[in-house]
Write a structure and sequence with these properties.
Number of strands: 14
Strand order of the largest sheet: 8-9-7-6-12-13-14
Order of helices and strands: EHEHEHEHEHEHEHEEEEHEHEHEH
Shape: globular
Mean pLDDT: 89
Low-confidence stretches: 3-7, 144-154
CATH class of the largest domain: Alpha Beta
CATH architecture of the largest domain: 3-Layer(aba) Sandwich
Structural class: alpha/beta
Oligomer: single chain
Radius of gyration: 20 Å
CATH superfamily of the largest domain: Methylesterase CheB, C-terminal domain
CATH topology of the largest domain: Rossmann fold
Largest sheet: 7 strands, parallel
Helix content: 25-40%
Number of domains: 2
Number of helices: 11
Length: 362
């Protein structure tokens, strides 16, 4: 008998948006990816309900500002009645960012910016981000749904595209500790739990969370109001100081640097690295170069392998690395890849990471 060959199932998407042009743009973007199938579109939640009755999607992309029923109300009903991974598709300016944050708290797993016209390179980057967000959401833990196997990792640029790998003599010694954190899908809520547990005198923290431009400032402001430490969107040249966390701005790479006794951050543009900008690999490589053994690295929930190579480089430089465990991850992708590379010293549930990090920094 010949073995039966099975083709991996496509991620089935339902697009819900009151704008016909946005529905058309998203449909074209998704149809350009062989791993995604658009099973329907809907101009409002009432139409969406009828579509779901006909065929249940793996993922819903959802606008948050719609007539008849707003996206947040619809999201709440989905999560309480039939949990389906939801990706919020928003303008991410002003009230849009606030509503998107509220949607994350209600159970949405990703936020993407609505597609806009631009250069061919801009459109291609937008297409990659939007498609990756949907495929990532399909593998997220939502309600009691089981997870699908992770897709094959596609070719991508490494941190070499932004920062050359240091030689053996590049590490600089210092006495100050720095915490370097990388996260993606599910990371907004994981970071909130992590940062809320940090004491006032926590070592300086630098963070890359995959999220769109315009969203990071609102996200940082929201965390700043919840945490004992201060939290802000990083600006070029910001010092890394005790009691403060700096979050990479959407669409900018964040690097840790050092001048004398002072750590600071540098923002760069550059290409997508590991299919992301900001990229965890870029942050972790810079932490290996300028922080070395004075860095505690943390890799959290997220799909793909961004951060795995960089974390291995941090370990080679003497850093102590922690990965979030599978049970507490929304998507056990990035931590799993770092563990496979032998880059992780300790695997912990989310609620134990902050305490361990503080202890390691003393």
């Amino acid at each position: 008998m010949h073995p039966i060959l099975t083709t991996p199932s496509k991620t089935r998407v339902l697009i819900v948006d009151d704008s016909a042009s946005v529905r058309q743009s998203l449909k074209a973007i998704f149809e350009s990816d062989p791993e995604i199938e658009v099973i329907g579109t809907a101009a409002d939640p009432f139409v969406a309900v009828e579509r779901i009755k006909q065929q249940v999607p793996d993922v819903i992309t959802l606008d948050v500002e719609m007539p008849r029923m707003d996206g947040l109300t619809f999201l709440g009903r989905i999560m309480s009645q039939h949990p389906i991974p939801v990706v919020i598709c928003s303008t991410l300016t002003g009230e849009g960012s606030e509503t998107a944050l509220a949607a994350i708290e209600k159970g949405a797993v990703e936020v993407i910016a609505k597609p806009k016209l631009g250069t061919r390179e801009f459109f291609e980057e937008s297409r990659i981000r939007i498609c990756d967000a949907v495929k990532s959401a399909a593998r997220a833990r939502v309600g009691r749904r089981g997870r699908r196997p992770a897709p094959e990792v596609r070719p991508k640029l490494s941190a070499d595209a932004v920062l050359r790998k240091p030689g053996s003599g590049a590490m600089i010694e210092t006495t100050d500790k720095v915490i370097a954190v990388g996260a993606s899908t599910g990371g907004t809520e994981a970071l909130r739990d992590f940062l809320e547990a940090m004491p006032l005198d926590a070592p300086g923290i630098v963070i890359v969370q995959h999220m769109p431009e315009e969203f990071t400032a609102r996200f940082a402001k929201r965390l700043d109001g919840l945490c004992r430490i201060s939290v802000k969107e990083a600006a070029d040249g910001d010092s890394v100081i005790r009691g403060q966390a700096l979050i990479a701005p959407g669409n900018r790479h964040l690097l840790l640097k050092r001048s004398g006794a002072r750590y600071f951050v540098e923002l760069r543009d550059g290409p997508l690295v590991s299919r992301h900008r900001p990229s965890v690999d870029v942050l972790f490589r810079s932490a290996a170069r300028w922080g070395g053994r004075n860095v505690v690295g943390v890799i959290m929930t997220g799909m793909g392998d961004d951060g795995a190579k960089g974390m291995a480089e941090m370990k080679e430089a003497g850093a102590f690395n922690i990965a979030q465990d599978e049970a507490s991850c929304v998507v056990f992708g990035m931590p799993a890849e770092a563990i496979k590379r032998g880059a992780v010293d300790l695997v912990l549930p989310l609620d134990a990471i902050a305490h361990e990090v503080v202890c390691r920094c003393r």
